Structure formats: structure tokens, C-alpha cells
Amino acid sequence: MKKREAIMKNRKMGIHILTFFFITLINANYAISQHALVSAGKMLR
């Protein structure tokens, strides 16, 4: 029972880490694309 509980806990942690990783990745991509758009806008002006 104890071993199974530990596995469940680890699985939950893994899901949390994955979610956090994806959110960070999406935020980083968004920030980079925003920055690129601003830079392109300045160059076009």
C-alpha cells in the first residue's frame, strides 16, 4: 500500500512538473514572438 501511494504521489508530481514546463514554454514563446513583432514594427517604421 505504502509503495503504491508513493507511486501515485510521484505521478502527480510528474504531471505538475510537465504542466509547469509547458506553461513556461508557452509564456517564453509568447514573449519572444511579442518581442520579434515589436522589433519588426520598429524596423518597418
User: Which residues form runs of ≥5 with pLDDT under 50?
Assistant: none
**What fraction strand?**
under 5%
Structural class: mainly alpha
The sequence of SSEs as H and E is: H
Oligomeric state of the chains in view: single chain
Radius of gyration: 20 Å
Shape: rod-shaped
Instruction: Report the strand count.
Output: 0
> How many individual helices?
1
Structural domain count: 1
Helix share, percent: over 70%
| Euclidean distance between termini CA atoms | 66 Å
Largest β-sheet summary: none
* Average pLDDT metric: 90
What do these coordinates show?
The chain has one domain (1-45). The protein is mainly α and 45 residues long. The longest helix is centred in the middle third of the chain and has 43 residues, at 2-44. It is built from 1 helix and no strands. The model has no long low-confidence stretch (mean pLDDT 90).
